[in-house]
């Protein structure tokens, strides 16, 4: 059944017209859908009974079903969603500040990028997610955030997949997340992360939504980077840094440089100095992500997280060069929900709609969560 998550304001207005209903109800219907995180009560809206029936019978509110949630000791929650064509993972991270949470969203099932230290790419690319499937993750995350008394304040496209290779759906989902009648989230609260697909970065800069850009750099020289990120052979460091600078010029946004720190691979003092010189004159923040273990990499190498001393030395050098540097503390690594640990899941048997969901020892079967009051 088609879902409300698949609709934009325009397409829903059109559908209402086809049903001989006033298209002016579209914003109200979508607002109710988003404000209740996909669990609207149509009887609370001033709409006709016939429209209520149509909405109930002809449009589902969610294209996916929640299969399991895993919760880490630090409060990070990983959601496994079954949607048409496969399973998708999203991660909810309660913030350090009370009342808010961040959500990490997948843009593809699997990933074609082949980054050596990332689990998401191990089984290759499976499918692009539709805008509706991305919005569905957004609503699930909002729902779970609200269930723990928090508001989903930021969204990062840092789950599974390369967003720039599914850009039309990613941009459409951003349009819906930010639309005042839909997600109503500020564009500055959304980050799109990329390995550095240059035409994608330029297209995102031109799309009109001034979202934040994160560039997964991971090495300051092409030789090291090409070993870690195969896409570097197509778009080398000069090209991607130039694209990131163009992005900044066009949108006025700071760019985040993501740098997964791997022991004795990209964490030497020389790497730090070369990274600092790349940052010269560029208003960017560097986020250091200490490697989250995934076992042997595609190349057969088993990477290690750097020792605290090496991490400290690396960060200190960057700061000595006045590079704004943050260390991203691993979150949810006990439940394989940290950066780079999301991977495609295959379910042995998919329960049919209405049947109980699967569960595993350390996971919680999907349970209806008490819906908090509308905001
Ligand atoms: N394909 C996009 C979106 C994924 S974002 C991109 O690469 O930017 C996932 C982030 O986590 C990226 O910065 C990625 O490089 C990083 N990452 C991947 N594997 C990791 C690991 N094992 N430990 C720490 N960070 C990792």
Q: Which features does this protein show?
A:
elongated; 375 residues; two-stranded antiparallel ribbon; TIM Barrel; binds S-adenosyl-L-homocysteine
Task: Describe what this molecule looks like in 3D.
With about 375 residues, the protein is an alpha/beta fold. The chain contains ten helices and 13 strands. Helix 4 packs across helix 5 and helix 6 runs parallel beside helix 8. It folds into two domains: about 55 residues; about 300 residues, TIM Barrel (Alpha-Beta Barrel). The C terminus is likely disordered. The protein is elongated. Helix content is about 30%, strand content about 20%. The structure holds S-adenosyl-L-homocysteine.
Kindly estimate the percentage of residues that lie in beta strands according to DSSP: 15-25%
Ends: how far apart? 28 Å
Small molecules in complex: S-adenosyl-L-homocysteine
Helical content class: 25-40%
Can you name the CATH architecture of the largest domain? Alpha-Beta Barrel
Q: For the report, how would you describe the main beta sheet? A: 11 strands, mixed
* CATH class group of the largest domain: Alpha Beta
- Name the average pLDDT: 90
CATH topology of the largest domain: TIM Barrel
In total, how many domains does the architecture comprise?
Answer: 2
Oligomer kind: single chain
Helix/strand/pairing class, anyone? alpha/beta
Rounded radius of gyration (Å): 21 Å
């Amino acid at each position: 059944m088609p879902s409300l998550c698949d609709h934009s304001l325009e397409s829903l207005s059109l559908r209402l017209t086809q049903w001989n209903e006033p298209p002016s109800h579209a914003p109200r219907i979508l607002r109710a859908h988003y404000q209740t995180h996909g669990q609207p009560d149509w009887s609370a809206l001033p709409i006709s009974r016939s429209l209520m029936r149509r909405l109930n019978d002809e449009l589902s509110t969610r294209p996916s079903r929640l299969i399991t949630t895993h919760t880490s000791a630090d409060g990070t929650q990983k959601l496994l969603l079954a949607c048409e064509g496969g399973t998708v993972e999203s991660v909810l991270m309660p913030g350090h500040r009370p009342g808010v949470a961040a959500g990490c969203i997948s843009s593809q099932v699997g990933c074609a990028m082949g980054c050596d230290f990332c689990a998401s790419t191990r089984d290759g690319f499976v499918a692009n997610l539709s805008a509706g499937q991305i919005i569905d993750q957004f609503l699930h995350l909002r729902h779970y955030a609200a269930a723990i008394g928090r508001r989903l304040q930021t969204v990062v496209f840092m789950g599974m997949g390369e967003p720039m290779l599914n850009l039309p759906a990613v941009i459409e989902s951003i349009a819906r997340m930010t639309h005042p009648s839909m997600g109503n989230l500020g564009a500055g609260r959304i980050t799109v992360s990329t390995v550095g697909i240059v035409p994608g970065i330029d297209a995102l800069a031109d799309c009109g939504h001034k979202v934040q850009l994160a560039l997964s750099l991971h090495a300051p020289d092409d030789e090291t980077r090409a070993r870690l990120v195969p896409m570097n052979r197509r778009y080398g460091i000069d090209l991607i840094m130039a694209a990131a600078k163009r992005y900044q010029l066009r949108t006025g946004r700071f760019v985040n440089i993501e740098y997964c720190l791997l022991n004795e691979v990209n964490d030497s003092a020389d790497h730090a100095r070369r990274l600092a010189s790349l940052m010269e004159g560029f208003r960017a923040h560097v986020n250091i992500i200490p490697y989250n273990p995934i076992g042997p990499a595609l190349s057969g190498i088993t990477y290690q997280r750097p020792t605290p001393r090496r991490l400290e030395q690396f960060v200190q050098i960057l700061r000595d060069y006045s590079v704004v540097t943050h260390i991203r503390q691993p979150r949810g690594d006990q439940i394989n929900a940290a950066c780079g640990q999301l991977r495609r899941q295959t379910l042995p048997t998919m329960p049919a709609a209405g049947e109980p969901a699967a569960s595993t020892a350390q996971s919680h079967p999907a349970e209806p969560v008490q819906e908090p009051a509308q905001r």
